[in-house]
Amino acid sequence: MTRPPAFAQQITFLYAEDPAACRRFYGEVLGLPLVQDQGFAAIFAVGAGHRGFLGVVQARGPREVTDPRREGGVVVTLVTPEVAAWHDHLAAAGVPIEAPPRHAAAAGITHFFFRDPAGYLLEIQRFDRPDWPEPG
Fold it and tell me: Per the UniProt record, which residue ranges are transmembrane (predicted)?
């Protein structure tokens, strides 16, 4: 069986009851560039090369774990070698951080968690292991 071509890009859509607050958070606090505003959805680029994106969309209702089209059910991990710098930036911006950065030896990462205005759990992470692919 012949496999189709590899995927060229990826978008994770986050559903929020207050999408305006999330748009401000991703655009102003995290500094992600807005690449498309579709009215009902705002799509931000994550990283160089326009390969990964986060979209913020109006939720159909409050969080319900059983329906992935509502708030919840995902952890967004942003990978950077500058974990401590991001921790300091977010703390200075008043973003509630669950715990300071820590090294998780079993996974070979350094990371910390925080939440966006809609309650999504986000993680800033660095891979401390040589077998993680470099961005390209």
Answer: none
